[in-house]
Amino acid sequence: MIRRFPYVQIKTNSLGKYIILYGRGFDFDTGNGLYLSSSNFNGSQGYYDLYSQIASVSAQNPPFSAYPVTSYTVINNNVLQFSLSAFNTPQKLDIIYAGPSGYIKASEGLRFTYIQIVSSFNINFYVSGE
Fold it and tell me: How far apart, in whole angstroms, are the C-alpha atoms of residue 5 and residue 110?
């Protein structure tokens, strides 16, 4: 069976793009709560080791490097929204949400994988075989 993993394309230097996440557990956060991990590591991302002091959670939730999203709105336990900052270089951004029992990455879901910052638009979908 082939699964399609769509991604969102946003042009470089775009301001005011709102991202709405649907999931669960958004009423509970750890650390800053929301992060963007980039494929274009430039040293300005933070290093987050949120679970090293919790043995039952740390093995499944290793440290990660990411940009914290400091301003986001939890609409309810299942809906969260934020405004994406403008990025000036092409890259892939994974959304990470950290809660008390660990974090989840958008790339691990079945409906969405990542935000792709592009210099020009293509209409493509990444296709992965199983």
Answer: 7
The whole-angstrom separation of Cα 70 and Cα 75 is 16
Higher pLDDT: 123 or 14? It is: 14
Q: Are 87 and 8 in contact (CB under 8 A)?
A: no
Is the model more confident about 111 or about 119? 119
The domains located in the chain, with CATH, are 2-120 (2.60.40)
Closest listed residue to residue 68, CA positions, set 40, 102, 93: 93
C-alpha 56/C-alpha 128 separation (Å) is: 32
Q: What span, in angstroms and rounded, lies between the C-alpha atoms of 118 and 14?
A: 10
Q: Which of 82, 79, 105 is nearest to 94 (CA)?
A: 105
pTM for this model (two decimals): 0.83
pLDDT at 128: 47
Helices (H), 1-130: 55-58
